[in-house]
Amino acid sequence: MEKLLEMNNFFKNIIIGLFSVRSNLTRVILTASGLTIGIFTVSIVSAAVSSIDKEFAKSMDYYGNDKVYVGTWPWSFDFDWWKYRNRPKIEESSLEYITQYSEYITDVSIKKNTWTRATYGNKASWVQLNGVYPSYQDMLSGTKIENGRFFSQNEWDLQRRVIIVGGTVRDGFFQGKDPIGKKIRLNNVTFEIIGELKKQGIGMVPGGTLDNLVIMPSTTFERILTRWGFDELVLQTSPEDIPLAKEEVGMIMRVARKIPPGDDDNFAVNSADAYMEQFNTMKNAIAGMGFLVTGISLVVSAIGIMNVMFVSVRERTREIGLRKAMGATNFNILTQFLSEAVAIAIIGGSVGIALIRLTVFGLASFPIPNFNGATLPISFDLLLVFYTFTVCVFIGVLAGLIPARTAANLNPIDALRDE
User: Fold this and answer.
1) Would you state the pLDDT for residue 227?
2) For the whole model, what pTM was predicted?
3) How do the domains of the chain map onto residue ranges?
């Protein structure tokens, strides 16, 4: 019974504090506005970083965590490009060495790359072309054949003019209708569409989306587009063997290209982790700057709440003295003023959450110009609400603790004499 009375007394003091907030609503709103801005800023930074993480992971699916790529250029922004421009092209014959001597590579394919103009009726667009082996179907990452089929070994042998198109190509030429069996012209040559890839969305890394891609047999590519583009070797392995596979492939390529000991490589062995390292560096820098600014804003907001609470204590000194004279304990007074501070913080945080929710909804609803109706990949995480309210309560307690202790420690006789 005694514990029940203590609990009832505790909640009664919280209610008294909340009524005090209601009686000074204008001052509370002005004070909470600083916290609203801080919460809005930290929430938009958190939502942006979280969305970037998700979109980057989706883009990295294009490369896969189980593949090694051998090309002319390294996947890095930190290199002297003029040292690589005159490197010899990657040769398809190197695959024979890799297949014969590698212990970690389980499947291989050439990937011939170029860009060309595609036309269908009175519509035209630039698309990326890949010429690959039939086995590339099993090596696709981040997407799959959604409609139709991949080309067969027989079609590859006979250099058939058949293609598989990405989602952007389908939407641009056929407005989302079934493209299977339709024919488009690539480099003034007619090709039949036999397959369609599932749409991925906006990519965040170079070439990190298959939506604007057209895939064809590498034999057809070589016969029709032999004067353009560059070749890349795509090598399948297991994710845990990536480091060993890259080292092994590097040694095999040196043998295949007859590079003397001591000379530098004239090729690059790449994998998805190269982009991951660079992305993490940039993401941490962006997040660090964002959280630094928002941290300053939250500190200023906490100081504002503390200042208002000191003013509130000064204005209500006689009230505190009267409550103490009637039997209120120091803990009762402390609970009352802490409740006020936390309520102010929660009001500011709630408005900030409402604003971020409306902002994210607006950004995610309107299509980005020149991106075929794609919207900004930003989302609102409900877990963010929990974190925000936790931060608000923490700021409220931190900012209100000293003023509340000051109020709780007032001598009731001196408080009643206050004018």
Assistant:
1) 63
2) 0.64
3) 2-60+277-417, 67-272
